[in-house]
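Summary for the lay section of the report: proteins are chains of building blocks that fold into shapes. Here we show the chain for GAF domain-containing protein and then a coded description of the shape we predicted for it.
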Amino acid sequence: MACMYPATSSSPEILYPYIEKELIKLLGSETNWISNAANAASTLGFLMPMLNWAGFYLYDGSELILGPFWGKPAVTRIQIGKGVCGDSAKLRKTIVVEDVHQYPGHIACDLFSNSEIVIPLVKNNQLIGVLDIDSPEIGRFQEDDRIALEKIATIMLDHIDFPTIV
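The coded shape description reads as follows.
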């Protein structure tokens, strides 16, 4: 079992490579997708500064269903094309929202969330779901976060055997 400690710096150049190494160590020895997804969400929530939610919404063939997460309880189902998660899934594109209160159709789970980044999880051209990360800080996510989190999502897709729609 991996025993992680907070990174010594919140600088993206130090933080994200540290998270990548921790995830590879943590996910490499386990095969259960639920355990791996839960640990991945918890790792992000524990190691990234200024977050209040990190987790997965998984595509069931018609909508996104809440998966393993770190944070307060959340909306259970999200329609494709609705809110930030649904838009990211529909477009298969990462969406960074500086201020969620300005995003048309934003789905509020936690009144303290002010910014959000959602990375689509696509494997073999198939939508698996999205990685959703929220922060209480307006403007928390920048371009360096997007690049690093897209790489981390790829690591997760390589190490977590998410269920797929047949």
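Put simply, here is one thing we learned. Residues 96 and 117 are 4 Å apart (CA to CA).
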